[in-house]
Amino acid sequence: MPTKVNRQKMLIGGKWVACDRNFEVYNPQDGEIIAYVPSATKEDMIEAIGIADRTFRERFPLPVHERIEILEKTADYMTENSEDFAHIIALEGSKTITEARSEVKRAIQTIKISAEEARRLKGETINFDQNAGSENKVGFYQRFPVGVIGAITPFNDPLNLVAHKIGPAIASGNAIVLKPASATPISALKLAEAFVEAGLPQGYLSVLTGSGKEIGDTLITHPSIKMVTFTGGAEAGERITQRVGTKKVSMELGSNSPVIVLADADLPKAVHSCCSGAFSAAGQNCIGVQRIYVEKSVYPQFLDALIEATALLRTGDKMEQRTDMGPMINEKEAERVAGWVEEAVIAGAKVEIGGIREGAFYYPTVMTNVPVTAKIAKEEIFGPIVIVQPVQDLDEAIERSNDVDYGLQAGIFTNDINKAFKAIGKMDVGGIMINDSSDYRIDEMPFGGTKGSGIGREGVRFSMESMTEQKVVCFNLDS
């Protein structure tokens, strides 16, 4: 039975707006059109930014109790409509319905954490009398919202990554204009609906859909945008940094995440975690496991078990609850992954299992003997591929883990606390998971990386800190 095609509206200044021009949103599983979505123009973006700027300046700031109430009501709306949210995520993206339901739960938690952190956004007193001659001075610093935030989000977590932009922005008193990924815009529009229903005053939120080439440049360069927050690919991130000038910037730009498995590890646990971490969301996950370095003495045992676990994964209809992995976001991306695998094989790599593409589906793939110079070893594959390589010891594993221009997260499996702390100290990453894969995150922790993996940290409180400016206040009292 064909899916009913609906026509979406975008949110400009709190009002739902149709557009003369629209683009199609497809179900990547079968290429079926599921929606027509407005294709915003540069003029639409300028209008949205102008409304946000006027709203912020005229109403600045929303009282904290109003921010809390709005965020709590948004979370309530999401909870009441959680199955609708999950269906949208699964239909327009790559996630299975089970993965989509998990994302909805996380997004609700992200909004709830934003409500909690709104009451905790505080400054502190300053002891000015630490300097001689300042005995009569007292004061403090206080955090103020930066103004209007421009946000750009990717397709792979189309609801929760949007929540990680909007939630902290509203919690810290800012207005925000967001452009979601064109492949998965409906989830973002549904979240905007939740904020509207929760009573967010008009002007504080706009969600514009359309071409990044047409409206993205206006969003990041407009003088009224005081901060740009971006989650996406490294090349796009570099282009943005070249265009934003002196605006505040927060960026999460992906990774090539390593996991180390030492001889003293719990191997069944390591296999399970690495298999899940490599292939969830069809591998389209910035902290997904891409490289596994296994101590030689247990390498054959680990590799055999990982291949066996991978063989048990069910790839197919993402709306079926028994399915473990659905399609990639489109056939073009699946073709790209196939090309990277083929390139590595020509250079001497071996496909242990998988290596098969059917349309937008690319089956879970385990590779060995991959040359360190291969693109698939150096860059972010963003697909269901994992590389397994033997190493002599922990030192070699750390050296090889660090030998890429990314440093988002990593994992290590060991029962030796000294080796764990050695990895903590020497691995050049933003987060390291002990006895877990790199693919672990909660929405409250600081999240970000080193090197080419980005600038700054997300996680609700840490996003709010970057979305505010510290202002020092000092009173010179009469003696």
TrEMBL record:
<protein>
    <recommendedName>
        <fullName>3-sulfolactaldehyde dehydrogenase</fullName>
        <ecNumber>1.2.1.97</ecNumber>
    </recommendedName>
</protein>
<comment type="function">
    <text>Part of the sulfo-TAL (or sulfo-SFT) pathway, a D-sulfoquinovose degradation pathway that produces sulfolactate (SL). Catalyzes the oxidation of 3-sulfolactaldehyde (SLA) to sulfolactate (SL).</text>
</comment>
<dbReference type="InterPro" id="IPR015590">
    <property type="entry name" value="Aldehyde_DH_dom"/>
</dbReference>
<dbReference type="InterPro" id="IPR016163">
    <property type="entry name" value="Ald_DH_C"/>
</dbReference>
<comment type="similarity">
    <text>Belongs to the aldehyde dehydrogenase family.</text>
</comment>
<dbReference type="InterPro" id="IPR016162">
    <property type="entry name" value="Ald_DH_N"/>
</dbReference>
<keyword id="KW-0560">Oxidoreductase</keyword>
<dbReference type="InterPro" id="IPR016161">
    <property type="entry name" value="Ald_DH/histidinol_DH"/>
</dbReference>
<dbReference type="InterPro" id="IPR051020">
    <property type="entry name" value="ALDH-related_metabolic_enz"/>
</dbReference>
<dbReference type="Pfam" id="PF00171">
    <property type="entry name" value="Aldedh"/>
</dbReference>
<dbReference type="GO" id="GO:0008911">
    <property type="term" value="F:lactaldehyde dehydrogenase (NAD+) activity"/>
</dbReference>
<feature type="domain" description="Aldehyde dehydrogenase">
    <location>
        <begin position="16"/>
        <end position="473"/>
    </location>
</feature>
